[in-house]
Design brief:
heterodimer; A: 972 residues; mainly alpha; 48 helices; B: 452 residues; Proliferating Cell Nuclear Antigen; Arc Repressor Mutant, subunit A; 9-stranded antiparallel beta sheet; 5-stranded mixed beta sheet; 13 helices
């Protein structure tokens, strides 16, 4: 055969059999001669790129779109490679042929019978070879059976015929296929030695399958029953296979099969050493199996006690409650048989007392109590070491038990006495009182929180470079805004060269947590400000783009503020900001603020957004001192400033043109007060929550039903609305500045304030809207920044966070949907959380988002220490959320369990919450008993008795469930 | 796939826990050093077999684990022997977790038969058997075997051919650079430590760093940075020590505040287990560049050679004594030890605050070549892509260095270095100097050389 003949056949799409027939008679020498040209031909076809010396036939074919990775000519060239090339070429060439070319491939290999075939089928290159083709070759002596795991996987899956079944083809039962080729029966042990997936769960196969469809377990049971397989060998193979390092699913399937074989008592006894070996297995379900099988040994005398006692601690140390309880059940039998507590048994009990789960410790103590007479004095040391590991609720039992053991033994050891359950300080009654919800004047400024302003252009460039890559906190953003406003017009000689790397990075988008990454909403305004500073040219994102990528209402005033700064910079007007925070968290020291006002001497500041934002950031500290200094500030600022700082000044009718500033000053003075009387002279038609009157948020937990993939699913929902206190009616108003407004003002017609000019009211806009959070809030520092708008009253931000957490209640932490920024304000000392704070806290505790959950636990711990946490409000929040039917009690209990371990005060506060909660929720709900378990531990730590009514309710619980059991324990 | 070298562990027999001729359990560790020799380091009896078994099991957990990819790794631990201590060190496949078991002479009744460093075979059957060791048992312990036993050919030769990633060797060497900076932050008793470790999240893990913080006599996990807190990213890496705590005395937690790396030292009455984790799950110790500044401006070769010659497998190296012996300053000795540590020729023990001598049993010639940042910095200098700017202030030198698509500004002052590149801007030096700063340091060093 010449190369030209080969090429002609390969390029003929209909050649098929002719190609195979032409290659069949070639000897190895002739094949070797054609090997290199065949490889070259295959390469040209695959890459659709003819070589310069390619034939016209080939060039034409490629020019007409022939070849390519999936071209039929390419596949035929590939077949030719298997017919002609040596092992060195084929070792990397896997089986990859068109379905209709498979018989040709089969025949080409049979014709050639190459000496490399054994190695090739065992190599990864042979992995995709169809099992029936391989089986045919083995049967006909074309190659040897490859002793590789993949052979058994292929064997298992081919006979299961999962894929043909999926395509609607008939599937012969596995038994029929095996009996049609009996030598395959010898391969069955291999299914247990490898990760064959023969026993992996495939529940989706059965429901629509043919009536005689068999799984491997079905088939093996049948073959054993019919005598085709040796039962004893099969059982032994299965149990030995469990010792191997196989996948968890495969192992689960294997021991499920073993159980289906229903081993007789003699067989169980025979396999006892294997079960014992499995007690230390790294896969949990295998340990469970081993413990269950050991539990099936009927006669206690048959248990291999010494070996079991040696291995049981390994089963306990895995941490699973199921293993531990099964292990202790077995231990009880052993102790019963031994009639004494040996050191081996005590070692196991010691391990159980160190177990993470209180129930396990309880059972271990039950065993000890039942056998206390048998504990030898010297063995006490083993148990005494476990004392620090035992839960508070069991420590008293352990103390009593060991004391009684002492007495029985009549000995004393030198070991130090065990600490009592409750430390002495707990004996005196503790009380927990939270600070009042309306006590918001507590000082908040701490020297260590002071913000250092940026002093030079060089420092500003460095700060902006860092913020372009990542924003550490909104404080950094505030420092940069302030510095641009002060230093933005200063342009040293090498300014352009110095900022070139910054401009370059801004164009590239910066880091993913950077100040301008994926600009959206407020980040557009920041980007505009930076570009304006760097280039000296006014940059302004078009309004349509701003609107398209939703600007969260709360940020609208900030956006206006940033645009105003950019305009000033472009016009060459640098100035210090009134609203630049002096302390972290967005706070401004009022004394510094008044000094800024006096220094600026600019009375027109009264109408700026900068002034209004600065008012909302004034800390409760130093207001009296600031008020004294305010007397020298310019008019018309002076009266407003004095009013904001608590002076006796009140607005006059002429002040109505600065009504936004007066409302903001009132909110600064007391965020929670109804100011409608004091500000009546302004003659305002105000319906905005947190305008003249404070806002109140309402929420309700519920479920909504959606159809997804033709299935109805119930999703958690938290409906939130906001109202003005005192009206009971929704009061959202949306009125733009207009000529009409100004004319009305002239005629003293009541003016309706614009929420865009009132940062307090803007925060409440869109609260009840039902839409996904915009891209704007996809960075944690942005959500945290929302709290900086009005640090005195972060309720709106809390509610926004609560909505976000409820939407993602069962979602893990997310980079793009961060929730943690909302928690920031919970960590401000002296700021009562009120109901919105407690709602955010509770949703953080019951959610799956580990970042939010961790912060919620931190907040609860610190909030109890600072008395911000209110058990009554928290209990009513839990009860309200429970009505929605979607909170996970286990998550809440796990979190609370961590909190109570911090101190007795924490145990007391959580205990009080739970006392109020458990009497008002249905404790039969899934995992609701977990709250009772927390209450048990809290009670043990504080020693404070439950109220009579609670005890009575718990004592009256019916049923045999866990809730009733723990409830009765508590009632005792 | 990162660069790797082919390496063969060749042991005379598989390590095992088996019944010896006396019927007592015998834990035998097979050895194999860089020259394929099989040293015999120790023979004796273990005083607390269960604790030893659990520590070795946990060490094998670390070396067998890749903490963020389901990738199998079969890299054996390294054992260093001298009369005072047997020390086993392991490094995870992801290059982000370092573990060390310190077994002082008091942990055994026996005899040290040699000094040196060797690989030790860890295999699955031995690993499983380690958990069956019990304190009441009389367990023999041997590291290596004498020539007579080896010559009898009773055991089967064990060969493990592996690809040792260069970054693994580099990380294993470089992890020592962090340890002198570790500060002890928290110390709690074992029961409190166990409560803490058990409470670490398993499934849903935080995206942001968590922190271990002191809470009275206890310790808890927090999501907020605060003074004295130890950052943890990848809490599952700390969970590795959970099985050790039920029988331990105390847990000491160390932290390098600059980088965010932390170390977790489980202390027993006479032994300890030291686990060090990198600042992030996805950041191995190899890529952190903590030693780049030292490598860019190392002590003179002669000093390094002298200090190296003074290393005699000490479990604690007294820098002052070496300085006196060699007639050089202590700081030079310490700088030389830092470089030697980065070359795998010394380790650091945070507990004693001293280096110890051991030589990683791999070909370490290429460690320095594995520093791409330093290589790139040298290239910037040799290509003339760095220029010192005039009018620099007295306290700092300023440079302009070619970056990607822009010119970066570098400022080198005594107290602080900075660069305008994204790498430096983001990490602010926390992950070592960038190539631009390194290039500027090289230029500055050359310029100041005549003055020295």
């Amino acid at each position: 055969m010449t190369y030209e003949e080969l090429e002609k056949l390969v390029l003929d799409k209909k050649a098929g059999g002719a190609l195979q027939r032409a290659l069949a008679p070639l000897d190895e020498k002739a094949r070797a001669k054609l090997s290199a040209p065949a490889q070259k031909l295959h390469r040209q076809l695959r890459e659709c790129k003819p070589a310069p010396d390619a034939s016209n036939r080939l060039k034409t074919r490629l020019a007409r779109g022939g070849g390519g990775y999936h071209g039929k000519e390419t596949y035929q060239a590939r077949l030719a490679l298997f017919a002609l090339c040596p092992a060195s070429v084929l070792k990397k060439l896997d089986y990859h042929v068109w379905h209709d070319l498979a018989p040709l491939f089969d025949q080409i290999i049979r014709d050639r019978r190459p000496d490399w075939l054994d190695d090739w089928v065992a190599s990864p290159a042979g992995a995709a070879l169809p099992f029936d083709m391989l089986r045919g070759w083995i049967r006909d002596g074309v190659c040897a059976k490859p002793e590789v795991d993949r052979y058994y996987q292929s064997f298992a899956w081919f006979l299961m015929q999962v894929l043909p079944y999926q395509f609607g083809k008939a599937v012969p039962p596995i038994t029929k296929q095996l009996l049609a080729d009996p030598p395959l029966l010898a391969d069955i042990p291999g299914l247990f030695r490898t990760d064959s997936r023969a026993f992996a769960s495939t529940p989706w196969v059965r429901p629509d399958g043919p009536p005689d469809y068999e799984t491997w377990s079905d088939a093996l049971l049948k073959l054993t029953a019919d005598g085709h397989l040796n039962r004893a060998e099969l059982l032994q193979t299965a149990v030995e296979g469990l010792k191997l390092d196989l996948g968890s699913g495969q192992l689960a399937g294997m021991h499920a099969f073993y159980k289906r074989m229903a081993p007789a008592q003699a067989e169980i006894l025979l396999h006892q050493p294997c079960y014992i070996d499995l007690l230390g297995h790294p896969v949990g379900n295998v340990v469970t199996f081993a413990l269950e099988m050991l539990g099936k040994i009927r006669n206690d005398q048959d248990l291999q006690v010494d070996r079991i006692l040696l291995e049981l601690p390994a089963a306990l140390s895995k941490g699973s409650k199921v293993h531990a309880l099964l292990a202790l059940r077995l231990l009880k039998r052993i102790i019963k048989r031994q009639m004494e507590l040996t050191l081996g048994s005590l070692t196991v009990i010691g391990e159980a007392l160190r177990h993470a789960h209180s129930d396990v410790q309880s059972v271990a103590l039950d065993i000890l109590e039942a056998n206390s007479a048998a504990i030898a004095g010297e063995d006490l040391v083993v148990l005494r070491e476990t004392e620090p590991f035992v839960a508070a609720s069991h420590r008293a039992r352990l103390v009593r038990l060991l004391s009684s053991a002492f007495e029985i033994d009549g000995k004393r050891t030198d070991a130090p006495p065990i600490a009592d359950t409750i430390p002495p300080e707990a004996v005196r009654p503790l009380d927990y009182h939270s600070i009042a919800s309306d006590r918001i004047q507590s000082p908040i400024l701490r020297p260590e929180d002071a913000v250092t302003p940026i002093e030079s252009v060089e420092e500003l460039i460095e700060a902006a470079l860092h913020a372009t890559e990542t924003v550490d906190s909104p404080d950094e953003v505030e420092r940069i805004i302030d510095a641009i406003s002060r230093l933005g017009t200063s342009r040293p000689a090498d300014f352009d060269a110095a900022v070139a790397p910054l401009v370059h990075r801004l164009k590239a988008g910066g880091g993913t947590n950077g100040i301008v990454f994926e600009p959206a909403g407020i980040r557009f305004a920041l980007s505009d400000l930076l570009h304006t500073w760097l280039t000296g040219q006014r940059h302004r994102t078009p309004d349509w783009l701003w609107s398209y990528r939703r600007c969260k209402h709360g940020f609208v005033p900030i956006g206006r503020h940033l645009r105003a700064i950019a305009t000033d910079i472009q016009r060459g007007r640098a100035k210090p900001l009134l609203s630049a925070p002096t302390h972290r968290g967005g706070w401004i020291d009022p004394v510094v603020w008044v000094d800024r006002l006096i220094r600026s001497g600019d009375a027109s500041a009264v109408s700026t957004m900068d002034f209004r934002l600065s008012l909302l950031r004034l800390a409760p500290d130093n207001r009296a001192a600031a008020l004294e200094r305010a007397s020298t500030s310019p008019e018309p600022l002076r009266r407003l400033v004095q009013f904001a700082l608590g002076g006796d000044v009140r607005p006059a009718p002429l002040d109505r043109r600065h009504h936004s500033a007066w409302i903001t000053a009132a909110r600064c003075r007391d965020p929670l007060k109804d100011w409608s009387q004091e500000l009546a002279p302004l003659k305002l038609d105000d319906g905005l929550p947190d305008g003249l009157r404070p806002a109140r948020h309402f929420w309700r937990a519920s479920r909504r039903t959606e159809v997804r993939h033709r299935e109805r699913v119930e999703l958690p929902e938290l409906s939130v609305s906001v109202r003005r206190v005192g009206t009971g009616l929704p009061t959202l108003t949306d009125k733009a500045d207009s000529l009409l407004g100004r004319i009305a003002d002239a005629f003293r017609v009541p003016i309706a304030p614009d929420w865009r000019e009132l940062p307090t009211a803007a925060l409440n806009q869109g609260t009840s809207e039902d839409f996904l959070e915009p891209l704007e809030l996809s960075r944690p520092w942005v959500t945290q920044w929302l709290c900086y708008v009005w640090p005195q009253n972060p309720s709106a931000s809390y509610m926004r966070g609560a909505q976000r957490l409820a939407e993602r209640i069962d979602s893990a932490s997310s980079t793009w949907n961060p929730s943690r920024g909302y928690f920031h304000a919970l960590f401000q000392r002296g700021r009562p959380w009120r109901e919105p704070g407690h709602l955010l806290l509770c949703l953080g505790l019951v959610g799956k988002d580990a970042d939010a959950r961790g912060l919620a636990i931190d907040a609860l711990i610190e909030g109890i220490g600072w008395r911000l946490f209110d058990p009554e409000i928290f209990a009513s929040t839990i009860i309200g959320l429970v009505e929605g039917g979607w909170i996970k009690f286990s998550r809440l209990a796990d979190a609370l369990m961590l909190v109570i371990q911090v101190s007795q005060l924490h145990a007391l506060a959580v205990g009080e919450t739970l006392q109020q909660t458990v009497t008002k929720i249905d404790l039969q709900r899934k995992n609701a008993f977990r709250l009772l378990e927390v209450l048990v531990e809290a009670q043990a730590m504080t020693g404070k008795p439950l109220p009579f009514a609670t005890r009575q309710m718990l004592a009256g619980m019916s049923g045999s469930g866990k809730a009733a059991k723990v409830g009765k324990q508590l009632a005792r | 796939m990162s660069a790797a070298i082919d390496y063969t562990y060749r042991y005379a027999f598989p390590s095992s826990v088996a019944a010896a001729a006396s019927g007592r359990p015998q834990l035998s560790l097979a050895t194999c050093d860089a020259n394929q020799q099989r040293p015999h380091f120790f023979d004796g009896r273990v005083r607390q077999p269960r604790i030893l078994g659990e520590m070795l099991y946990t060490l094998s957990d670390v070396v067998q684990t890749h903490f963020f990819l389901p990738r199998p790794v079969i890299l054996d631990p390294v054992l260093t022997s001298n009369e005072e201590l047997l020390r086993l060190e392991g490094f995870s496949g992801c290059c982000g977790v370092y573990a060390r078991v310190d077994l002082p002479a008091e942990a055994f009744d026996g005899e040290c038969r040699g000094r040196g460093t060797t690989n030790v075979d860890f295999n699955e059957p031995m690993r499983n058997a380690l958990l069956r060791l019990r304190d009441g048992e009389d367990v023999r312990f041997a590291v290596g075997a004498d020539e007579v036993v080896l010559a009898s050919g009773a055991g089967e030769i064990v060969e493990k051919k592996v690809k040792l990633p260069l970054r693994w060797i580099k990380g294993f060497s470089e992890v020592q650079a962090y340890q002198p900076r570790l500060e002890l932050k928290i110390e709690v008793d074992a029961a409190e430590a166990l409560r803490f470790v058990r409470a670490l999240p398993r499934g849903a893990v935080p995206k942001m760093p968590s922190y271990a913080v002191s809470a009275g006599r206890s310790i808890r996990l927090s999501q907020r940075p605060q003074k004295g807190a130890v950052p943890i990213l990848g809490t599952h890496r700390v969970k590795v020590i959970e099985p050790l705590l039920p029988r331990a005395r105390r847990l000491r937690i160390w932290c390098d505040e600059e980088s965010g790396a932390s170390a977790w030292e489980v202390r027993y009455a006479v032994a300890s287990f030291f686990l060090m984790i990198s600042p992030d799950v996805f950041r191995g110790f190899s890529g952190e560049g903590q030693i780049l500044a030292a490598l860019a401006n190392p002590p003179e070769d002669g000093v390094i050679a002298k200090v190296r010659a003074a290393l005699k497998w000490q479990s604690q190296i007294h820098a002052e004594a070496i300085a006196q012996d060699l007639g050089i300053s202590r700081s030079e000795v310490e700088a030389a030890l830092a470089v030697l540590g980065s070359r795998g020729l010394a380790g650091f023990d945070a507990g004693t605050q001293r280096y110890f001598h051991r030589e990683l049993p791999f070909d370490l010639e290429r460690v320095e070549e594995m520093q791409p940042r330093l290589r790139n910095a040298r290239k910037l200098v040799s290509d003339g892509q760095i220029r010192r700017l005039p009018n620099s202030d007295q306290n700092a030198a300023r440079f302009e260095v070619q970056g990607t698509g822009t010119m970066h500004r570098v400022r080198i002052a005594d107290d602080r270095q900075s660069c305008t590149c994204p790498w430096f801007s983001k990490y602010q030096g926390q992950r070592g100097p960038c190539k631009h700063i390194l290039a500027a340091s090289l230029v500055l060093d050359d310029a100041e050389a005549p003055a020295r």
